[in-house]
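Attaching the record inline, Q. Sequence:
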Amino acid sequence: MLLKKVFMSSLLVSMMTIAGVASADVTFVKTTDGSTFKLDPALFDTPAAKEFLATGKNSYVGNAEAEAKGKKLFGLYSCTQCHGGDAKGQVGPGLVGPTFRYPKDATNKGMFETLWHGTNGGMGGKGLGVMGATDPTNGLKVDELLKVIAWVRTQGKGLTGNE
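Structure, as predicted:
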């Protein structure tokens, strides 16, 4: 009986700990002005997006299929026009590091924030509903943006953004 109570208490504590970690969502900060912003939790509609919201880690880094999709989206959304076909810079800055125009872009969370809401340097936000203020369906979904970031990470030298 005592063993059962100890086991049940341990199980309850473990479950509460896991629930606490899962609800400790990432806080997003705009690159433009440092203010926080919230995204509708419904936008985090894939396992990778949910993990990113909870931890700031991009599970698509190292996933060749996701990276290939990210490369395609990078071209489709004309990112190549400013950042070049290899994301190393053209008219706009390089995105691969080790130095970044916005140092927070060394992390996947930081790069996500920069891409979602844009910069003061001329790049508009690419996030869903941000890209076209009059069209809430215009722009990249969270999952798509994570794939773009995963592809960008393939162009650098060992930086995954998950460090």
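Strands lie at 28-29, 36-37. The chain is about 45% helix and 0% strand.

More tomorrow.
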